[in-house]
């Protein structure tokens, strides 16, 4: 992992899990796989704290453990996964997607799973039902079966998956959960040579048989007498729902597939029109489950199938559909390709090409916004023509020589453009060498991705700084809000309320508003940079897979 | 490097665009400024409902994470004097390690499990006092008493080093299992407000001292 990535991971861990987890996590990221004793020794924390931190990290999938490198019998080693920690940036996007697809219930289920890492289905359903019941009116409550059905829909569409077992050989029933990692002499872990991925577990999308009947409960204001008796009674009854030990986690890859599809559809809509984007959306929807995440293109679909699956509102005749498909195939962006002639024409969506085009558009837009449209013209030229001499750049870009030279040197100093030397003679004499300017898309994308990580880290640091500066003011306003709330709950008069409100003066209120504005801006900026990070990361991983 | 005595640059070729005698930009003498002046102003953020909702979700999520047991804070600042009531105070964040550590019931034998049910956590004190190291009883979580190997490890380690204050409570009570912890904490006969040492009394409203408090 690069220094920027580790820095960003540390900040994310600090905000979401506390400083102790940050310390352990960044130490593991920097030094690779280590066993418990080494971590304790090098971080100068107590064994219990380190164990707790490792538990938290494993619970959230950010840390895995394997047999020690000296073979079975040596202490287990822990290995942090930086990529997984960086996903924390995208959590709000996942929750929002679940909301758009499955409503408030889906939103809360995903939020619950993201907050706790690995959860059983029954506890999720209960907590979500209770939370939804809280917000409903008096006397209404949500039945568990509604939440269960949303949960099963999420599992069917692969947005949720089961946590993989550890040590597939030594588990019973194929549904054993991951072990608590702080047990060094774990027999099951020793049996496996490598931790299995979630996908390799054959039952990762099967729902367990769960008996879950009931309705959501509202949290009551505690009254003394009756509650004690209820409490005692509740303590006695232990509820088990038949899914002990079956834990679920969010399937990030599936969400990423969905985001990628959305990006392609909106790109087509921007470049062409709404109908073409609907056609592409139909093709992608039909190939959702048949396409693997790393596939270069979707499975070929015939025009007949596409025609049948178009949404009912788009009542376009068959020949118009053919024309649209031809247009899409002929487009230089190459989002859609033709794979054959049977069935009226077989069409695929070229996923990797689409990602490459999206990444290229991102790079061009970055250069345009930082250096101006003429530098962007030079950049696009070099992307298209690969290698050009100085003179050729000036001619093709139609920019005067001096300015073209300046712009090229600026881009060169920022490492966006590289210089390639082609010697005519083996002694590389300058007068007898060609100097060609070139742009390599993949290394440039990697470099800009690291810039994005650094940007987000800077944004988080700034937000923490701003909050720290105004800590006293924030605490005061929180106290006043608490007083107001308690006064209102106990039915105070308006004079008392206004008196309390006046405790915070007008300039302080203004300062608070400015602070809130800044914090919101910084948060929103983080979300936006994360969108760029997603496109660049998807592009880079698509090139490494192929 | 050019030959001796000749003052030519290593490459002064037109192909890179530097012609003879042209003034080159001045050499850089110091690192670039920390906040350089930008020629192009950056674009404004995309606003809109979706962006605002995402921001709100993000902030809510951060706030919610602070209250969960997986947010680990090191031992809180010590009070000035150790008080007897500290032992019986509820911790703000309940360290429910057991509920969210994936239980390994199948590994424990039946006898171990029944043994575990009677063991409990003990809040081990910071150094500086005589620490009773035995383990007192602590009521277990009602959802089937999920005891893990992790807890067993912790018991052993707490015997070894009782240095930090690790009050191991169970996971926060689920809604249908609300009970007043006050009564059943630490097998005392007194309710928890008995041990309240009055430090929190009247601490909220500092400025409303003109109202008499009875």
Automatic annotation (TrEMBL), chain A:
GO terms for biological process: DNA-templated transcription. Residues 170-201, 213-240 are annotated as: Disordered. It comes from the Eukaryota. Transmembrane segments: none annotated. It is found in: Nucleus. GO terms for cellular component: RNA polymerase III complex. Pfam families: HTH_9, RNA_pol_Rpc82, RPC3_helical, WHD_POLR3C. Residues 174-199 have a biased composition (Low complexity). Keywords: DNA-directed RNA polymerase, Nucleus, Transcription. GO terms for molecular function: single-stranded DNA binding. Residues 8-66 form the RNA polymerase III subunit RPC82-related helix-turn-helix domain. Residues 149-358 form the RNA polymerase III Rpc82 C -terminal domain. Gene3D superfamilies: 6.10.140.1450, Winged helix-like DNA-binding domain superfamily/Winged helix DNA-binding domain. Residues 363-439 form the DNA-directed RNA polymerase III subunit RPC3 winged-helix domain. Belongs to the eukaryotic RPC3/POLR3C RNA polymerase subunit family. Component of the RNA polymerase III (Pol III) complex consisting of 17 subunits. DNA-dependent RNA polymerase catalyzes the transcription of DNA into RNA using the four ribonucleoside triphosphates as substrates. Specific core component of RNA polymerase III which synthesizes small RNAs, such as 5S rRNA and tRNAs. This is DNA-directed RNA polymerase III subunit RPC3. It comes from Fundulus heteroclitus.
TrEMBL record, chain B:
It comes from the Eukaryota. It is found in: Nucleus. InterPro entries: RNA_pol_III_Rpc31 (IPR024661). Residues 111-120 have a biased composition (Polar residues). Residues 111-131, 143-214 are annotated as: Disordered. It holds the Pfam family RNA_pol_3_Rpc31. Keywords: Nucleus. The keyword Nucleus applies. Residues 171-189, 197-214 have a biased composition (Acidic residues). GO terms for biological process: transcription by RNA polymerase III. Its main location: nucleus. Belongs to the eukaryotic RPC7 RNA polymerase subunit family. This is RNA polymerase III subunit G like. It comes from Fundulus heteroclitus (Killifish).
């Amino acid at each position: 992992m690069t220094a920027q990535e580790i820095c960003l991971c540390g900040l994310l861990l600090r905000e979401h899990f506390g400083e102790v987890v940050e310390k352990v996590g960044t130490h593991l990221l920097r030094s690779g796989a280590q066993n418990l004793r080494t971590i304790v020794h090098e971080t100068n924390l107590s064994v219990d704290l380190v164990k707790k931190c490792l538990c938290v990290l494993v619970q959230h999938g950010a840390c895995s453990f394997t047999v020690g490198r000296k073979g079975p019998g040596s202490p287990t080693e822990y290995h942090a996964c930086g990529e997984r920690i960086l996903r924390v940036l995208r959590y709000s996007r996942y929750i929002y997607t679940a909301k758009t697809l499955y409503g408030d219930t889906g939103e809360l289920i995903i939020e619950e799973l993201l907050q706790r890492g690995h959860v059983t289905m029954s506890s999720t359903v209960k907590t979500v039902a209770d939370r939804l019941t809280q917000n409903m009116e008096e006397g209404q409550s949500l039945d568990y079966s509604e939440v269960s059905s949303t949960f099963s829909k999420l599992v069917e569409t692969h947005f949720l998956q089961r946590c993989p077992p550890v040590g597939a050989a030594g588990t019973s029933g194929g549904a054993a959960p991951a072990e608590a990692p702080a047990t060094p002499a774990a027999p099951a872990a020793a049996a496996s040579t490598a931790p299995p991925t979630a996908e390799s577990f054959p039952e990762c999308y099967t729902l367990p048989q769960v008996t879950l009947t009931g309705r959501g409960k509202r949290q009551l204001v505690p009254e003394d007498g009756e509650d004690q008796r209820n409490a005692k009674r509740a303590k006695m009854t232990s509820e088990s729902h038949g899914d002990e030990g079956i834990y679920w986690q969010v399937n990030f890859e599936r969400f990423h597939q969905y985001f990628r599809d959305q990006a392609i559809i909106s790109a087509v809509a921007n470049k062409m029109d709404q109908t073409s984007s609907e056609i592409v959306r139909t093709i992608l929807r039909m190939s959702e489950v048949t396409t693997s995440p790393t596939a270069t293109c979707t499975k070929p679909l015939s025009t007949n199938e596409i025609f049948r699956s178009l949404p009912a509102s788009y009542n376009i005749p068959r020949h118009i559909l053919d024309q649209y498909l031809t247009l899409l195939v002929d487009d230089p962006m190459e989002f859609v390709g033709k794979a054959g002639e049977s069935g009226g024409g077989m069409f695929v969506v070229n996923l990797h090409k689409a990602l490459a085009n999206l990444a290229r558009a991102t790079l061009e837009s970055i250069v345009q916004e930082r250096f101006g449209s003429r530098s962007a013209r030079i950049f696009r030229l070099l992307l298209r023509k690969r290698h050009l001499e100085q003179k050729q750049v000036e001619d093709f870009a139609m920019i005067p020589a001096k300015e073209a030279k300046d712009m090229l040197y600026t881009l060169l100093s920022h490492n966006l453009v590289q210089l390639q030397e082609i010697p005519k003679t083996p002694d590389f004499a300058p007068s007898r060498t060609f100097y060609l300017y070139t742009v390599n898309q993949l290394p440039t994308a990697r470099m800009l991705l690291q810039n994005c990580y650094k940007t987000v880290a800077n944004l988080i640091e700034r937000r923490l700084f701003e909050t720290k500066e105004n800590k006293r003011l924030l605490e005061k306003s929180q106290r006043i809000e608490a007083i107001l709330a308690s006064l209102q709950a106990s039915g105070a008069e308006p004079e008392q309320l206004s008196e309390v409100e006046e405790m915070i003066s007008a300039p302080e209120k203004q300062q608070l508003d400015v602070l809130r504005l800044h914090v919101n801006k910084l948060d929103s900026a983080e979300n936006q940079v994360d969108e760029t990070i997603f496109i660049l990361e998807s592009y880079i991983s698509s090139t490494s897979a192929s | 490097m050019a030959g001796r005595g000749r003052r030519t640059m290593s490459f002064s070729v037109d192909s890179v665009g530097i012609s003879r005698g042209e003034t080159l930009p001045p050499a850089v003498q110091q690192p670039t400024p920390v906040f350089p002046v930008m020629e192009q102003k950056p674009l404004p953020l995309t606003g809109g409902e979706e962006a605002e909702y995402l921001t709100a979700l993000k902030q809510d999520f951060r706030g919610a994470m602070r209250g969960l047991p997986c947010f680990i804070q090191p031992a809180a600042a010590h009070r000035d004097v150790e008080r007897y009531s500290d032992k019986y105070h509820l911790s703000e964040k309940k360290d429910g390690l057991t509920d969210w550590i994936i239980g390994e019931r199948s590994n424990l034998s039946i006898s171990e499990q029944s043994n575990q049910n009677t063991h409990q956590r003990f809040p081990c004190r910071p150094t500086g006092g005589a620490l009773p190291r035995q383990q007192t009883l602590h009521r277990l979580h009602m959802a089937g008493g999920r005891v893990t190997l992790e807890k067993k490890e912790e018991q052993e380690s707490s015997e070894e080093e009782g240095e930090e204050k690790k009050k191991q409570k169970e996971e926060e009570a689920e809604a249908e299992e609300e009970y007043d912890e006050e009564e059943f904490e630490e097998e005392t006969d007194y309710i928890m407000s008995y041990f309240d040492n009055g430090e929190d009394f009247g601490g909220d409203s500092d400025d409303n001292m003109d109202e008499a408090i009875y």
